[in-house]
Amino acid sequence: LAHGREVLLQGFHWESHNFAWYEIVREKAGQIGEYGFTGVWLPPPSDSIAPQGYLPRDLYDLNTKYGTRDQLARCIAGLRENGVHAMADIVINHRCATTRGEGGKWNRWDGTRMAWDERAICRDNHQFGGRGGGKEGDDFTAAPNIDHSQEFVKEDLKEWLRWLLSDEVGFRSLRFDFTKGYGGRHVGEYVQACSPEFSVGEFWETCSYDGEGLSYDQDHHRQRMVNWCDECGGSSAAFDFTTKGILQEAVGRGELWRLVDRKGRPPGLMGVWPSHAVTFLDNHDTGSTQAHWPFPSDKILQGYAYILTHPGTPTVFWDHLFDWGEENSRKIRELVAVRKRADLHSRSEVKVAEARGDLYAAYVDGRVAMKIGQGEWAPPSAGGWKVASFGDGFAVWTKET
């Protein structure tokens, strides 16, 4: 969070468990580093009931459908050799039990390094016989919800996180899954205890809608993410779901006027707390084969022209970079290179030049100009601006010095 120059790659999709995935990422580590990415978000590393990793069971068992523990170690080492850090996907809102307890309910973890019992489960989870404290956030019905107020739970998880970030395993940063399920203060405590290079939480809140569709004003939506970051003590960033929701509506419906708020700022989390906004177009939930909330596929490059030139920490989705054709890949790499050369960062200053139905244009740090949409716009010809990247519905210029 301090230097603000991360460019992240989500290094998997929903079907990655069907392949020797750690080997695939390791083989591409040289390309990933060459393309300018600083970190790769890898899938959940622990033993899981579900092959994707989001129903974890034995957290210390790093043999998964993505590969063995040794393959994970080689993958992380390959990334590190190319100047890229590995981000662990931390799924700790819930944990599938290994053993039946009283009443035949799955609520114990006998024989594992974290040998918890019913006290580790929120008491609201009657189907799992929980005897812990009350649930602090949204319920995840498929597995026992963990009570993070229990001291033994917190200490065990801190030890596990420190282990993941140690040289023995090799991760350097963390992505916290389903953070609406437990208090942000716990994430803050975990981050303080293990000191990752970077931390981001998935606080996925539904946007505001009215009779016309997506509401223009999403201030309440982004404020919820600000509040969550505050609860973490400012130690973790959050995925900018507000920017995703507004941006895909704006480019998909030709309503680019949405990309400026009433105070002239970007309308997402990046507009109020850019150092804590991790921007993205799609992930394994919203896109991929799940496609719960996909970005318009024919507007992907307009989306990347926006997030890769704007403040916040941009994240590129694996599919878009490696699986959607050479033209998409080449343009994304071009835009990452522009961000690097112009030294744009998470706190870069945006000055919106135009925001109407068919056009959004802005200057960023006085060194980059950009536009998306079919409307005509260019920076002044006398200003020393040179086209750095362009395509269908977007263009980016850099200022020659």
Low-confidence stretches: none
- Specify the helix fraction band: 25-40%
Order of helix and strand elements from N to C terminus: EHHEHEEEHEHEEEHEHEHEHHEEEEE
Number of alpha- plus pi-helical segments: 10
End-to-end Cα distance: 29 Å
Shape: globular
CA radius of gyration: 22 Å
Outline the biggest β-sheet: 8 strands, parallel, barrel
Give the helix/strand class: alpha/beta
* Number of β-strand runs: 17
Strand content: 15-25%
Q: What is the mean predicted local confidence, pLDDT?
A: 97
- Strand order, sheet with most strands: 1-2-3-6-7-10-11-12
Describe the structure.
Strand 16 and strand 17 form a beta hairpin. Helix content is 27%, strand content 17%. Strands 1-2-3-6-7-10-11-12 form an 8-stranded parallel β-barrel. A 5-stranded antiparallel sheet has the order 13-14-15-17-16, with helices on one face. The protein contains 10 helices and 17 strands. The longest helix is centred in the C-terminal third of the chain and has 16 residues. By secondary structure, it is of the alpha/beta class. The model has no long low-confidence stretch (mean pLDDT 97).
Structure summary:
With 401 residues, the protein is α/β, with parallel strands linked by helices. It is built from ten helices and 17 strands. A hairpin with a 3-residue loop joins strand 14 and strand 15 (368-372).
